[in-house]
Amino acid sequence: MSRSGYTLPVFACASAIAALHWLRHCQPLASVSVDLISPAQIAEIPIEQVSGLSENMALAITRSEPGDNLDLTRNTPIWALVEWRTGDGESVIIQGGEGIGIQLNAGNQPAIYGYAQRLLQENLSRMLAPEEKITVSIILPFGRSLAVRTSNSAFGVVEGLSLLGTTGISQPLSTPDQLTTFRSELQDKASQFETLVFCIGENGLDLARKLGINPEQLVKTANWLGPLLVEADVLGVKEILLFGYHGKLMKLAGGIFHTHHHLADGRREILAAHCALVGLKSEDIHTVFDSPTAEAALKYLKSLDADTGSDWVNQIYRAIAQAIDTRSLEYIQSHSSRGKDTTVCGSILFDRDRQIIIKSKIGGILMEKLC
User: Which one of 94, 300, 315, 344 has the fewest beta carbons within 10 angstroms of its own beta carbon?
Assistant: First the structure.
């Protein structure tokens, strides 16, 4: 059985709690209790170091422990600098320091997302008197170098890592134990809803919520799309909206239903094939095929449209979205005994700026029902 751990926001919050405790009592703590909120449980997090820097400022350090996840942040230090503050405003102001990424598509705001904000606000506010105010700066000393090895830049986050996540528990990724966990969640939600939304990762989950989709209808799949589509059909789910980053979801158009890049990665072949099918010129197809990433290929197609007044992005991605729907239905039917009553699939693809590129015909219908 794989061992779960905690997500980065939990360790950032633990550091902040320890630093605030120092300001209040001038005493170091060996560990702190963090209310995870989601799930509703308390985590005991070891504190590596804590010290006062001045009468009004303290620094505490924890180390990331994501369990048996293949997580590049394992053992990385997470610092929290907490300072007493006077004046107006919220009781807890959260800032991103060195190693916390910035969101290019959100006015260069620090990449400290909803769950992390809520976790810090709720845990720290409980420790403050009504008139007290603090500023919390989260620092990841190795965040900038670690970020180079992630796909953050594909989602418009640069210069560091994100405090991203919707829960405090870090489940092992791409392991059979994780699939068991996801199937259990799917079984629970399938008993409540006839229409569900499959999101491969946290970016999809976060964007879906912001667009107004009921969080209870969202199912995280990681790379296990194939098994979970079949499971949804077995459970009698009528409709699935596949909602994801185009560089991942387009793999389904090529019949790849486990999307981890170590197993299969036919993105440029899939994209180039659909470019050819809609009639793109040979030299432009070669440019798309030779693009280092799906995002770079999309950028090139957008530049063609801007320069020539063409509509290649819409034509190509509409064909890809239709192929995703068709291949997904075929995949389900090949494993189903339900006949004509198999689960219907629609798809929506978004880009690095979290802007929707295309909705398939069914995807658009499902989106209207969900929002």
Answer: 300
